[in-house]
Amino acid sequence: MHRADGPGFVTLVVEALEEIRQVERASSRAFASCVRTSGARSGGDAAYCAAPLSGMGTSLAIVGAYVLAGELAAAAGDHTTAFAAYHEEMRGFVETCQKLAQGNGKWFVPPTRGWIRMRNLNYKLLPYLPWRKVIEELPLKAGNAITLKEYAAARA
Question: Pick from 18, 23, 16, 5: which is nearest to 105 by CA?
Fold first, then answer.
């Protein structure tokens, strides 16, 4: 285990970055390629395989918890019925969130120094670029891809 300070840690980070630079294309695709089509068998954002580049892991976890709790209550604790309803409610939202990551790999994990320079310049100029609104609205579009049902209040 390495401590998060001192020259040993800096060396570790530099070595890790050098290894990342040597990997051709694979690293950027790996961040965006996880797609799960069957029902969730784990919890939180891991249940949906949204990929880090979607930026929607926490949203999926919170919405998923709400929907699962609501469907369990609506099914009077019958987990088989609740899980099927949960999967159906979440499907479109999960698919939309997964799509956010596709094609983003080169921006977040640039494969070359040229891509790094282009990405960094784009971030600096973003407030002045005409496509700024499109980029700002992508997560909002995904976040609004589900209409949450109002479930009956649980009895104490």
Answer: 23
Q: Using an 8 Å Cβ cutoff, are 31 and 103 in contact?
A: no
Separation in Å, CA 31 to CA 15, 28, 35, 41, 106: 20, 6, 11, 21, 10
Which residues make Cβ contacts (< 8 Å) with residue 43, sequence separation at least 6? Answer: 61, 64
Domain ranges of the chain: 6-143
H-assigned helices in 33-144: 57-74, 79-101, 105-108, 113-125, 132-143
pTM over 0.85: no
- Name, in order, each residue with C-beta under 8 angstroms of 135's C-beta and a sequence gap of 6 or more: 126
* Mean pLDDT within 38-66: 69
